[in-house]
Please model this.
Amino acid sequence: MGTQSTKAETPRLAAAKIGNDVGLLLAKLHATGSLLNNKALADYGLRERSFSVLTLACSGLEPTQRELADFLSLDPSQVVSLVDDLEHRGLVKRAQGKQDRRAKIIVSTAEGRRIHNKARAALEVCERSQLEALSEEENAQLRELLKKALWG
Amino acid sequence: MGTQSTKAETPRLAAAKIGNDVGLLLAKLHATGSLLNNKALADYGLRERSFSVLTLACSGLEPTQRELADFLSLDPSQVVSLVDDLEHRGLVKRAQGKQDRRAKIIVSTAEGRRIHNKARAALEVCERSQLEALSEEENAQLRELLKKALWG
DNA sequence: AACAATCGTTGACTTTTTCAATGATCCGTA
DNA sequence: TACGGATCATTGAAAAAGTCAACGATTGTT
Model:
C-alpha cells in the first residue's frame, strides 16, 4: 500500500497526462481507500475482504464460495481462507448447497450479523471522509457510474 | 487477480447492499481493469506500474523517486525495482536532483518515449473496451469524479 | 455406465508488500 | 560553522498475497 503520509499530498504530478488514466485513478483511489477502510475495520478484526464476504453472507442471497470468488475477483483458494477465518470466529457457517451438493453456501450467524452492523457503520463514516471532496449528488453519481461500468 | 472467466459474469450478488460499497466497486473495477491493461502492455514488456513510471518519466515533470512513490501509492523500495528494470532496458535514466542531491530524477530516453507512445495507444483501446458500457460523456464524468475525489 | 466438467480444498510456488537499517545529503539552529 | 534531526534512495529480510496444479466428491451429458 506504499508510504502514506497524513499530510495533504501536493499533487504536482497529477498534471501529467497520466492523471487522466482511468486505470491509475482507480488504483490510487482504491489504494488510499483500502488503507482507511482496513484501519476502520481493524477494531472488529476484519479487513476489506473479510468484510465483503461477511456482508454477502449477511445478505440473504446465500452465495456459494464460487460465487464469492467470481464476485470479489478472488481465487477460490483465497475464499477458502477467508471463510475459514470467519467460520472459526463464529461469524459465518458453511451450509450444503441446495441443488448442488458440491457447493457450499455461506450464511451468517447471529454474532456475524451483529459484528457486521457495527463494522458497516464504521465503514460508512470512513467512506464519507474519503469522498468528502464530493457532494452528496456527486457521490451517488460516482457509485452509479462504477456500477454501470461493471455491469452495464 | 483471481479467477476471471471470459464469459459474461451474471451479477446475481450485485443485488446485495455491498453493491453500493464504493470500496468494493473500486476494487472490482480496478481488478478487472488491471487484468486487461497488463495483458495489453505485455507486448511492450510493461505492466501497469512500469507503464505509470514510464509515463511520468516522459511527462517532462522530472519526478523524483519519492514523488513517484507518493503519487503511485508505492513503497519507495518498489520504485527502486521499477526504475531499475526500466533503466536496464534503456527506457529511462536516473539524473541527479537539481536542488537536492539526495534525490534522483527519472527521465525518459528517446527509446523510452517511442515505447511509451505505442503502449499508450494500446492502452487507450483497452480502456475504451473496459468502459464500453459508458457513453463518451459518462466516461469523462467518471474521470472528473475520480480526480475530484483524489485532489478536491 | 462412462466421461468430462465443476466445486471446494490443499499444498507448493512465485510475486508483492512491508519494514527496518544504512550512507549520503539537506536543513534548521545554536 | 558545526551539530542534530530529518529525508532521499537503496538493500535485504520477513510477511502477506496471489497463482497454479492436483485431488476427492459430485454433477450433468452422452
